[in-house]
Amino acid sequence: MEILSFEFPAGQPPKGRALVGCVGSGDLEVLLEPGMAGTLSIQVHTSVNGAEQRWQHLFQRLFQEQTPPALNIQIHDFGATPGVVRLRLEQGFEELGHD
């Protein structure tokens, strides 16, 4: 089990929160909560050791396309593929009203 932390530039925080996915389903859950303006903080709790670079690249690709809202994101991973991670994050952004 590893705990990884990442930070990216961001816009303003959203007003709401979102929870998507479910660890019990065998992939991951993502909790998105308002953060400090200008900063997106992500903490990943993963069962896959040695995957920090994979997570870093995934987040860089996702956030180069858009400026994310200022959030504190908690990800609880149980070996999800990058496609599932992206899907869950996009679901969370959609719930917050940020496309």
Automatic annotation (TrEMBL):
GO terms for molecular function: acyl carrier activity. Covalently binds the prosthetic group of malonate decarboxylase. GO terms for cellular component: cytoplasm. The keyword Phosphoprotein applies. Pfam families: ACP. It comes from the Bacteria. Subunit of malonate decarboxylase, it is an acyl carrier protein to which acetyl and malonyl thioester residues are bound via a 2'-(5''-phosphoribosyl)-3'-dephospho-CoA prosthetic group and turn over during the catalytic mechanism. NCBIfam families: malonate_delta, PRK01220.1. Belongs to the MdcC family. This is Malonate decarboxylase acyl carrier protein. It comes from Pseudomonas gessardii. The gene is mdcC.
